[in-house]
Design goal:
Length: 169
């Protein structure tokens, strides 16, 4: 399958990676510009509702823990006070974003589904519920013909094959 299966940690695990670290520096988290902003906008148009929080791009090469951020596609961060910051962070170097930059319908749909996953976490959902929200939006995009059926079905099967999703059913 040409599309990498999403490499994501749960909200708690992702927040744990950044908990003890200094806050995400502004040079690290940036508002998408140019082609990145256009790709992000195309993905957001696929969602039933837009996020009410900003989406920031992270370049893992600039992070204190390059390896930890490099393993994530998208994540949320808890502040020192323990509260989740109202920002969705996207790894600018993640395969899902790099693929979406090429503009294929399935890649934009995957990016939209990942953003929906993080939106669910922001609304208080745990990992099983966030994965369900991600899957639901992707299934709708396949059903609406926004994603070619064979590619969409392969991706949904790959989601099913992830142990974390199977355990939640």
């Amino acid at each position: 399958m040409p599309h990498a299966i999403l490499r994501r940690l749960s909200l708690a695990a992702a927040a744990g990676l950044l908990f003890g670290a200094a806050p995400v520096p502004s040079v690290l988290a940036q508002t998408p510009l140019g082609v990145e902003a256009r790709v992000l906008e195309r993905a957001l148009r696929l969602l039933p509702a837009r996020p009410s929080v900003p989406i920031r791009m992270i370049d893992p090469e600039l992070a204190a823990d390059v390896e930890a951020i490099g393993r994530l596609d998208a994540f949320l961060v808890r502040g020192r006070d323990g509260k989740v910051r109202p920002v969705i962070y996207l790894n600018r170097r993640a395969a899902i974003f790099e693929n979406a930059l090429r503009g294929a319908d399935i890649d934009l749909a995957i990016l939209a589904a990942v953003i929906r996953h993080e939106m669910a976490h922001l609304a208080g959902a745990g990992e099983p519920e966030a994965r369900r929200a991600e899957r639901d939006v992707f299934e709708r995009l396949v059903a609406d013909g926004r994603v070619p059926l064979p590619e969409g079905m392969r991706y949904l099967k790959a989601l099913d094959d992830q142990p974390q999703l199977r355990e939640t059913r």
